């Protein structure tokens, strides 16, 4: 058994498994969490939907909540696939609605293809 090093970044979690060569296991220098964080940074903090050119609405498309600041709204992927950023897969939701959708079986009445894309 080789000694699994700690992540050099957070020093809290074990480094992520990288690959195995012969009997020796190679680890990455960082844990999964830090690797993912860093990957996100590289995109300049831009989410995929931002890169796709989608613009967040000023209000929640589910409850109509009017945001005072855009951080109160987030973009929801109808099919749950964050890589599918076609406009008819994206909805602007407030934090409340987003959370509800995330945790519950709240049935979404939205279906892909139903939506009229914004004029951009
Ligand atoms: Zn780490
Ligand atoms: Zn809402």
Please give a handful of descriptors for the protein shown.
about 120 residues, 2 domains, two-stranded antiparallel sheet, elongated, binds zinc ion
Write a structural description.
The protein is of the alpha+beta class and 120 residues long. The protein has two domains: 1-44, no CATH class; 48-114, no CATH class. The chain has helices spanning 32-42, 48-51, 95-103; strands spanning 17-21, 24-27, 73-77, 90-94. The strands form two sheets. It has a two-stranded antiparallel sheet with strand order 1-2. It starts with 16 loop residues before the first strand and ends in a 17-residue tail after the last helix. The mean pLDDT is 84.
What's a quick, concise take on this entry?
The chain has helices spanning 32-42, 48-51, 95-103; strands at residues 17-21, 24-27, 73-77, 90-94. The chain is an alpha+beta fold.
Shape: elongated
User: Biggest sheet, open or closed, and with what strands and sense?
Assistant: 2 strands, antiparallel
Rg value: 20 Å
Question: Helical element count?
Answer: 3
Q: Tell me the series of helices and strands, N- to C-terminal.
A: EEHHEEH
Could you estimate the helical fraction of the residues in percent?
Answer: 10-25%
Spatial ordering of strands, largest sheet: 1-2
List ligands, each type once: zinc ion
Percent of sequence in beta strands: 15-25%
Based on secondary structure, the structural category is alpha+beta
Number of domains: 2
The tally of beta strands, per DSSP, is 4
> Between the first and last Cα atoms, what is the distance in angstroms?
57 Å
Low-pLDDT ranges: none
Kindly report the average pLDDT value. Answer: 84
